[in-house]
Amino acid sequence: MPRWSMLATGLVLVGLAAPVFAGNTVHPRTPVLWPDAPCIAAVDRTSDPMFEFGYSIPFEDTNLTIDEFDDSRTHQFIGFCRQWPAGTSPPQYISVDDLQRSIAAGAELDATKLEDPEATLETSVAWADCWTRITADDQRRPITFAAAAEPVVWDTSGVAPGTWVIAGYTWEPPYNLWRRAPWVVRVFDDDSDPALMQPALTIGSTPEVLVEDQEIDLDLCVAADPQATVRIAWATTEDAVPQWQEGEPTPIADLDPLSVAFAAPPEAWGLTLLLRARIENGLGSDYAAYPLTPIIVIKPSAGDSGESGGSDESSGSDGSTESADADTTDESETSDAGNQDAGSAGCQCAADSTRVPPLASLLALLGMIPLRRRKSIARTSRHVPT
């Protein structure tokens, strides 16, 4: 038997033994990219409750494998009443219906998730009354340039006043993906007494790596009462639930410019850290912000000078991680469980979906992976102010 024939036979056997959605599990998910925008947007609902924002994509992604849902590889937008630390994103599924049909189709192999309320946003206790659909489940957008050229319009009239963050959701089970915007939206009805409004806060991009006690400046963007204070805290990723170690509060009025110095304490050397900044105004409406990526703190060995361990590169918006103009990221960061954050302010990065695994490439060449292309939805492109 010719060698090529033996190879083809082997590939057929591998394909028959592979589980359903096998090709889809290795496909890097395509995230929403967040262009530069003001770090805090304001929506005064007494004037207009509609908030318009734009997004982009790194490339078009419409080639569905034969076993994917017709609405797979689409984007949706959700508003949340709070931010979250890197690596602790909301549930992978938005609705119970999405989870049920993924299990029924064999995309989601863990049927016990139906018994876990934290498996979907609809049943989550942790996120109860803290999220809202900006686009409906049946209005998810195809990952095309035409669709991304259309701005997203959010009617905020149905949400509670406060500071909201928007996240882009890539629906492609079983590994759905969240990408949080690096900016926030302050929704209010009356700004006559700013002190009574919930504060707003974002943290600028942070480096991916620090060396021991290397000090960095955390750039803050704040909308709060001038008498409010800010407090920096850190935790390690070793704990399932972050155990925050808080620093001393600093009056915002004393920060000029708005940045706070941070150096990892000795007990954090050699670990991966999460950071948090909290605005406290004494009125019961505090607000916490988190960088989009964690920080690795390198502890050089005794024989190292430590000079090569540092990095001045920003996390460069799980992009799973990512400079303001970057638009690509490591493939492993978008092909995992999908609940990672990344990116620096103004940018989100994505894996290169053209990097097809060798097995999938060979199968495709032999005609063993039928592919179909969703028809692009023609949309009128218009400029989105930033």
Structure in words:
With 386 residues, the chain is of the alpha+beta class. It has one domain. Helix content is 12%, strand content 26%. It is built from 6 helices and 20 strands. Strands 11, 13, 14, 15, 17, 18 and 19 form a 7-stranded mixed beta sheet that branches. Strands 1, 4, 5, 6, 8 and 9 form a 6-stranded mixed beta sheet that branches. It has a 3-stranded antiparallel beta sheet with strand order 10-12-16, with no helix packed on it. It starts with a helix and ends in a 13-residue tail after the last strand. The relative contact order is 0.20.
The gist of it:
This protein is α+β, with helices and mostly antiparallel strands and 386 residues long. 12% of the residues lie in helices and 26% in strands. It has one domain (3-90, 127-373).
List keywords for this structure.
globular; disordered C terminus; alpha+beta; disordered N terminus; 7-stranded mixed beta sheet; 6-stranded mixed beta sheet; 386 residues
Question: How are the SSEs ordered, and which strands pair?
Answer:
Layout lengths: L2 H15 L4 H4 L14 E5 L5 E4 L9 E3 L8 E7 L15 H10 L25 E3 L7 E2 L2 H5 L2 E4 L6 E10 L5 E12 L11 E4 L5 E3 L3 E9 L5 E8 L8 E2 L3 E2 L7 E5 L8 E9 L6 E3 L5 E4 L32 H4 L23 H8 L5 E3 L13
Parallel strand pairs: 1-9, 11-19
Antiparallel strand pairs: 2-7, 3-20, 4-5, 4-6, 4-8, 8-9, 10-12, 12-16, 13-14, 13-15, 13-17, 17-18, 17-19
